[in-house]
Amino acid sequence: MRVNYLEPSTIPRTIEFMSTPRSFTDEERRTWAPLTAVFELLPRQVDAQLLRDEELTHFDYATLSMIALADGRRMRMTELATGVNATLSRLSHAISRLEKRGLVRRTVTPDDARATTVQLTPNGHRKVIRATPEHVRTVRSFVFDALDAEQQRQLHDITVALLSRLDPEQRMLASRMS
Question: What is the pLDDT at residue 13?
């Protein structure tokens, strides 16, 4: 009888999960519980400030910011969707809202009639410039002011490590920045 041995990389992940504990260790729970609270609370705080001051969601702000930083203040929809980690459908809905407000406009991409380019309008550029200082203050007050310099470096290292698992192809701009 011949036995075929499997390379570790070919073992189904379900076997790995079966051999690991089904619940968090105490140390993992002490880390995971506050992290999930941050996942819930921080986006609410950032959205609340942007909605109050500029009538933008954080997603809207991130979208406008990415376009503002692009060459010519324009981007292909597919590239923009990747940069803000959105499906084309989600991005298209957001762009429609921003377009109705006169902050962006869609155009046919000159070198590919099947593609759409999003252009930041002068009003959109003013909006993102006006929104940025208070947005930065909000993020600083909830994130960076709570940490000393060493903790900020650690947070950077931790987020880079997490992003390398969550976005191994480095599709998001943030994954390529470190």
Answer: 56
